[in-house]
Design brief:
binds NADP nicotinamide-adenine-dinucleotide phosphate, single chain, alpha/beta, TIM Barrel, eight-stranded parallel beta sheet, 39% helix, 10 helices
Length: 272
């Protein structure tokens, strides 16, 4: 079962680092264009803005797939459920569709955290549970810790980073990957290959990179403040990259350009 591979949920709209009017404008464009999966997190400090914006926009709750993530500081028996209830209040919903652990616990013992996710699902506060930024060993440990399906490991995933080990672990464990930093925060635009390939399909460089991610079996999560970019990031379902083009893009993964690492984020585990 892969909720993010239901057609509308394959393309999720990320909300970091948006807030206020910029968040409302971006969400309005995203909803107009057809996005129904929305990604936020306790750490983004914008759950109130997401909840208020979605109310203002007036989209029906049951059309949406809302993901939020538990911050590391709330991943304890004392804080997990109260913080989740605070998130639900901010988002103005009774439950979220997907609840992720934003980061694995610092001591690497993921089982207690996964059991807390399970408890949230059993309490009806989320439809699905998942993880984010877990390495391969942690994915296996997470799977072993729960009988519930884990619907995503949301990780940095773009054509400039080799995530072969995580892709193999996704197949092995049945925990699908979903992407963040899908256009490597603009770094992909420094590589002419994407424009060159895109020209043959009538698509932009960003669309080629996003299509490559989808064809790897990974759901995409993108963020943009520009309506034209929001629109083109959604418009990636009507073409298929050839295996030759997939292979040429694969060759760029050797660049190993990782954006979110331990220097930037103290919670980052030892990545594969
Ligand atoms: N789980 C985690 O730990 C984690 C970590 C990071 C991010 N995330 C989530 O993933 C989402 C997306 O990741 P991200 O924002 O870090 O990286 P990203 O999507 O790779 O980069 C976003 C940047 O790329 C630009 N961009 C997007 N689409 C474009 C296009 N078609 N053409 C040209 N430029 C384009 C945007 O600028 P414009 O606004 O000018 O278009 C924006 O500055 C976040 O919003 C957040 O929800 C999760």
């Amino acid at each position: 079962m892969n909720i993010f591979f239901e057609r509308t949920h394959q393309r999720s709209f990320g909300t970091w680092p948006l807030n206020g009017q910029r968040l409302l404008d971006a969400l309005q464009s995203a909803i107009d264009i057809g996005y129904r999966a929305i990604d936020t997190a306790q750490l983004y400090d914008n759950e109130i803005g997401v909840g208020t914006s979605l109310r203002t926009i007036g989209i029906a709750r049951d059309e949406l797939c809302i993901t939020t993530k538990i911050a590391p500081a709330n991943d304890s028996d004392e804080r997990f459920m109260p913080s989740l209830r605070e998130s639900l209040a901010k988002l103005k919903v009774d439950r979220v569709d997907v609840l992720l652990l934003h980061w694995p616990p610092a001591n690497g013992d993921v089982a207690p955290s996964v059991r807390r996710l399970e408890q949230a699902a059993r309490a009806g506060l989320t439809r699905h549970i998942g993880i984010s930024n877990f390495n391969a060993a942690m994915m296996r440990a997470a799977k072993a810790a729960t009988a519930l399906p884990l619907v995503a490991n949301q990780v940095e995933f773009h054509p400039l980073l080799n995530q072969r080990v995580l892709l193999e672990t996704a197949s092995e464990t049945g925990i699908p990957l979903s992407s963040y930093c899908s256009v490597a925060r603009g770094e992909i635009f420094r590589y002419p290959l994407f424009d060159e390939i895109g020209a043959r399909y009538g698509k932009s460089a960003a669309q080629v990179a996003l299509r490559w991610i989808l064809q790897k079996g990974v759901a995409i999560n993108t963020m943009s403040t520009q309506r034209k970019n929001i629109e083109s990031n959604f418009d990636v379902m009507d073409f298929t990259l050839s295996s030759i083009d997939m292979n040429r893009i694969d060759a760029l993964t050797g660049t190993n350009y990782r954006i979110v690492n331990r220097e930037r984020v103290p919670y980052a585990p030892e990545f594969d």
